[in-house]
Specification:
2 copies of one chain form a homodimer. With 549 residues, chain A is α/β, with parallel strands linked by helices. Chain A contains 16 helices and 27 strands. The first copy, chain A, has 3 domains: 324 residues, ANL, N-terminal domain (Rossmann fold, 3-Layer(aba) Sandwich); 105 residues, Luciferase, Domain 3 (Luciferase, domain 3, Roll), CATH 2.30.38; 107 residues, GMP Synthetase, Chain A, domain 3. Chains A, B: This is Fatty acid--CoA ligase. Chains A, B: It comes from Streptomyces antnestii. Chains A, B: GO terms for molecular function: ligase activity, forming carbon-sulfur bonds.
């Protein structure tokens, strides 16, 4: 029996039309440094998005699902690209300007981008790459920057404002299939080539509704959101789309991501919400001790990307800003969980513990934990397994180019289609996720999992230990066993037996490492995380002086 | 270019599974009169919904898209039917217990309901109809009531609790097509047979997300919602589904809809939200003057069904309850608009004016106004036209039985698929709807529309006028012209010339009625609305003593 409801697709053009009419007076404010903030209403962005679509079609010949890349900061022009490109049926490809040059080249060529819209301030990054970009026919430059860097470039060069000037301010947006590609974002895995995630109109629309639900970010048109998380990073956590659904104002920092201008824009524009990774906030807190600013407008701060240290959360609480943890990844659009404590915990001692978790799954995200043998584990808050998720805004494959079938590597997607997140943790009976390890850092010992992070935290609580990293090493009997690598504090003298006994008070006996070594420093990645790959390699190649207890 | 997102359907079983696990401790509290409230957790409702589905399949042989009717008050068992029936793939058909017997019979037969789940207290209503119900094979009785009324009934009779007892508490819910029928609700038009609206899993899922968005009802698991609006009335405005998405507790009044028990349950259960039509609230306010109760928990009251009189809204404001207008209809699932004032109006003189409108359209509901000639009218807050809407939870046809194509009557659906609501009003530039008339009550005079309600309100402000109804009557020159029918106050002596001059100060000259008559009372419908059909008929048959000025 078929329903009698209208068959109306969930399209990004609908979000744009809604936001630019019903919330036409809401604003996107872009920070421009000394020349004062640039203010653009949602109505103007609606007009200019239509103009951009006309320009792309009429002047640049964009058709069908052509990929149009953006190499841009967070700003109004980038918001226009967000709406114009998918709404006309093309695919928005956001480029991560922090990637190494060779990866950027690989990604642009892999996606076969025909057009790149670039901020003038990023031309020093783009210009040297142009000779390597095989499919790019047009460069559109937005905002200040030295155009002479493009002299002699082989793609045609256009000025954003000149291109859209005089074009009609309405566009007859096509009625697309909601499952059609809308946006493309590459995730740089630690191994192999970057993998493309292709969001659909449907996935972005549903994700936007979720962001606006009371138990997610819960913003209204009374709010202004400071969007620090880059637009090239999982659609800025869905904020540009979600805000157009409900009229939330956006404050965009453009390239002014340093603590001082961030503090200045908070004081002068008074956002009520902000979204960013923890490192940004650590810098901001430090800045505020040097140069106090009134940041009291910021009632809510969404933190994701990595866990917020409890000390940072407490520091924010003291400033009257409430940190709300969220967990997600490029493959989850990204909203996977949001850590709003359940009603029963509010005002109790448990409230803070809930806030330190990764958060609770919404109805749109199904979750399960799988153990070392692939078995399903209970949601008991204790059984640790790899998190797998399923839902209408979760990736089920990776893009592999226009002529190939999507990739479904077995370590990323289960046979029944769930995404294997690579994160290991527990889920409480009321659905709160606590992550402890990356799956690749877990030690699989005799059919049980040992959390490397638990061992590290326990070790680092010893007064003689400066840093400690625990990695899995092969073991004939158990498959894998933990290797403890320890950095001792200057002048400290603790021996391995002492440390092992200390650890024995905190974790189960079978988890205690037999293999120990002292190192001078834990190797780190470019973003400061422990680089366990290096340690595993050093062990395998016999470079570590390991003692077996 | 296809997206790489998972193809996961939007299903009611997902809402159930989510609510009964992650929000498992949230509760449905059903009022039972003197025996104390019945409390059931979402987890228990999850278990019992699975049991009900097993019983329907194994014991009653329900398969495919069989229609299962409910003739029930708002209570926990009814919530279980809401989830079990669509989740297993069958179709929930909610029966309006206020309909005349012959309409109920027609509807049950038209839907070919195989099973009816009925509250024991409603057996006096159902039993006499049974001989006329051609397809009904099973009656399942829930809750207290005299079973002997079913003695000798030809369908098999079951006890709800006995039927589900011992059945498994999990069910392998099928992965349905999200466009499949989930629920069926008939709307009783003023003319012709009742029309069925068939909601899909998709439409209900999306509508539930909308209900939970910040600018709709905006509830969280800290809230308890008193669901007075019947579950047989457009899915209780979507609340049972929406609450399972976010863990909002529900307080269900069952058959205790009188002002005194409502006041008592508010005082003792302390709901934070309530949803009902205005008449319920008028009764409650009166009750509170007789028997004061602490109703201070009720921060938010959603009112729909018909407009809330300003006096009632003010009275609620004084009690600390904030009334929020919403507009919708059976064909719109029903959430069409919600009257949350825009941020810029909050705290200003305009705030109250915004709250008196029908409200603002969400992104999921596209709206347009069509004028007398079918032309599109601007959103200027002044041009009045018939409201047409479009969206994924808006009906595009009516159910016409298992073997017929859906009905798309031209007066209800436009050629391009929009729903013609039959409501006439204006839309402001920021998307707020103000309804003035039903389309059939508007006077189409020489290509312009005259609002009968405006003329009536103006007339009724004259001190000599007790009531006034204005209807369209045929006119050779203008097509239609207004006929003013006036009920004078006792001892009043105003003549038509005086009234016409009085009206002339308030409305445009071309809108002034030429035809006038005095009547003893305005004919009313069973729910107390002006019955203009009767007046038009009396005029057509020459029964009114009309004077032409």
């Amino acid at each position: 029996m078929l329903s009698t409801m209208q068959d109306v697709p969930l399209l990004i053009s609908r979000i744009l039309t809604h936001g630019s009419t019903i919330h036409g007076t809401s604003q996107v404010v872009t920070w421009t440094g000394e020349s004062g903030p640039q203010r653009r209403s949602f109505a103007e962005i609606g007009d200019r998005s239509a103009q951009l679509a006309h320009a792309l079609r009429a002047d640049l010949g964009v058709v069908d699902d052509d990929r149009i890349a953006t190499l841009m900061w967070n700003n109004s022009d980038h918001v226009e690209a967000y709406f114009a490109i998918p709404s006309m049926g093309a695919v928005l490809h956001t480029l991560n300007l922090r990637l190494p040059a060779e990866q950027l080249v690989w990604i642009v060529n892999h996606a076969a981008d025909r057009v790149i819209i670039v901020n003038g301030s990023l031309l020093p990054l783009l210009a040297p790459l142009l000779p390597s970009l095989t499919a790019v026919e047009h460069i559109v430059v937005s905002g200040p920057g030295d155009r002479s860097l493009l002299d002699g470039a082989s793609p045609q060069v256009h000025e954003y404002e000149e291109l859209i000037a005089g074009k009609p301010v309405t566009y007859d947006w096509p009625q697309l299939d909601e499952r059609q590609a809308a946006a493309l974002c590459y995730t740089s895995g630690t191994t192999g080539d970057p993998k493309g995630v292709v969001y659909s109109h449907r996935s972005i629309y549903l994700h936007s509704m979720q962001v606006n639900m009371t138990q997610s970010m819960g913003l209204t048109d009374e709010d202004t959101s400071l969007v620090v998380v880059p637009q090239f990073h999982v659609n800025a956590w869905g904020l540009p789309h979600a805000t157009f659904m409900t009229g939330v104002n956006m404050l965009m920092p453009d390239r002014f991501l340093q603590p001082a201008p961030l503090a200045e824009m908070i004081e002068s524009e008074r956002p009520t919400h902000a979204a960013a990774v923890p490192t940004i906030w650590q810098g901001l807190l430090k800045e505020l001790t040097v140069q106090p600013r009134d940041v009291s407008s910021l009632g809510q701060v969404t933190i994701g990307g990595s866990a917020c240290p409890p000390s940072l959360m407490k520091a924010f609480d003291e400033l009257g800003m409430r940190v709300c943890h969220a967990w997600g990844m490029t493959e989850t659009s990204p909203l996977g969980t949001v850590a709003r404590p359940p009603a029963a915990a509010i005002g109790t001692d448990e409230e803070y513990a809930y806030r330190l978790t990764q958060g609770r799954f919404p109805a749109g995200v199904e979750a399960r934990l799988t153990g070392p043998g692939g078995e399903l584990l209970p949601w008991d808050g204790e059984s640790a397994g790899e998190l797998e998720v399923r839902g209408p805004w979760i990736a089920g494959a990776y893009y592999s180019g226009p002529d190939s079938e999507p990739l479904r590597p077995a370590d990323k997607f289960s046979e029944d289609g769930w995404l294997k997140t690579g994160d290991v943790g527990t889920i409480s009976p009321d659905g709160f996720l606590t992550l402890t390890d990356r799956a690749k850092d877990v030690i699989k010992s005799g059919g049980e999992w040992i959390s490397s992070v638990d061992l590290e935290n326990a070790l680092m609580s010893h007064p003689d230990v400066a840093e400690a990293a625990v990695v899995a090493v092969p073991d004939e009997k158990w498959g894998e066993r933990p290797l403890a690598t320890v950095v001792l504090k200057e002048g400290a003298s603790a021996d391995f037996e002492t440390l092992r006994a200390f650890l024995g008070e905190k974790v189960a006996k079978w988890q205690l490492p037999e293999r120990w070594t002292v190192i001078s420093a834990v190797p780190k990645t470019s973003v400061g995380k422990f680089d366990k790959k290096v340690l595993r390699k050093q062990y395998a190649e016999g470079e570590l002086d390991v003692k077996k207890l």
